[in-house]
Amino acid sequence: MLSPSVRWAALAIVNLGMGTIAHASETWVFRFSSQTRAISTSWHDDLIFHNPTGQDATVNLVGMSNGGSLPSDQPSILVPAGRTVSLQNLFGVWIPAQDVPLWIVHVEAPDAIVVVSRGGAHGECSSPCGAPPNPFPTLGTFSMPVFQSLVPVGQEQIHIGADLGAEPSRINVGIYNAGASTATATVAVYQACDDTLLESRTVAVPADSAAQFGGLGAAKTQCDVTRGINIWLRYLIVTVDQPSVSYVFNVADDLAGQGLPRIPFAAALGP
């Protein structure tokens, strides 16, 4: 069992500042499936549709990034009146044929349909999990962002709170390039106490692809305490030369090698 200090340090994903519930007819959502071999943990998303109306509704898949093509067997999903549908219960739906850890699904749904994205940390599990991979998020879940529109070329995407409070952490940023050519993205990390630039990185994202970049935020915040006690607050600005969306999350510095992550807190997203 992890000690209290390790459990707190292992809060792996707590900063997703752009998280919202989308009621728009057109929506872009990050999906992911990856493995952390060092600590025997996998990370998976769950895309959820809730129909509060008295009429059945259909959610249509418009496209998938990273080379994913529209499936011929299930291009749409029926959401019955008054019901909730989770893609985790529809095994293998809307996943690219090739093995990629991160991708975007672009869907269209009636305005009344609530679209929610969640992620989960999946550790080893006996009954009722059965044989691996474990389908149960036994280590906790977290909310992921849902986007109602793409961000125009060159417009800053500002993520406030790119930190774990006073807990030392590193920053991961995910970027989707919706353009037809390779995008150049600038990722800049600032400390909020005096808005000083801590770090800047330029990355390339292939056309119609999602990619994640990690290890940002190594520079430590050095703020004058006379400015206030909140000397740990950081924010991140993403600027892309193609239409795009992005997310940010933080990982505790001492997560690796300390045991399995635990996510003991969750805040449900409201409209």
List the helices and strands and how they pair.
Elements lengths: L3 H6 L16 E11 L4 E10 L6 E8 L11 E4 L4 E3 L15 E7 L5 E9 L18 E4 L1 E2 L9 E4 L8 E9 L5 E9 L4 E10 L3 E8 L17 E7 L3 E9 L19
Antiparallel strand pairs: 1-2, 1-6, 1-9, 2-5, 2-7, 3-4, 3-6, 7-8, 10-15, 11-14, 11-16, 12-13, 12-15
Describe this entry's structure for a reader.
With 271 residues, the protein is mainly β. The chain is built from one helix and 16 strands. The protein has one helix at 4-9, and strands at 26-36, 41-50, 57-64, 76-79, 84-86, 102-108, 114-122, 141-144, 146-147, 157-160, 169-177, 183-191, 196-205, 209-216, 234-240, 244-252.
Would you kindly provide a brief summary of this structure?
With 271 residues, this protein is an all-beta fold.
What share of residues is helical?
under 10%
Largest sheet: 9 strands, antiparallel
Strand percentage lies at 35-45%
Query: Count the strands?
Result: 16
Low-confidence sequence ranges: 1-20
Rg computed from alpha carbons, rounded to a whole number of angstroms: 19 Å
End-to-end Cα distance, whole Å, is 37 Å
* Estimated structural class: mainly beta
- DSSP summary: helix tally: 1
Order of helices and strands: HEEEEEEEEEEEEEEEE
Report the average pLDDT across residues: 81
Q: Give the overall shape.
A: globular
Please tag this protein with its features:
271 residues; mainly beta; nine-stranded antiparallel sheet; four-stranded antiparallel sheet; 16 strands; 2% helix; globular; disordered N terminus
